[in-house]
């Protein structure tokens, strides 16, 4: 094996490692911002569609 092929293989491995690292950081940032957004949302309770209302079921 000559030095060029060894260097090429090492550069390829370094690129792959760097891409994985960047992708991991981006996913962590995305997850953190999603969690922050969910925590900042105001607490709202869903209104039940018919509970508490009068329903006329005569036929």
Automatic annotation (TrEMBL):
This is Putative motility protein. The lineage of its organism: Bacteria, Bacillati, Bacillota, Bacilli, Bacillales.
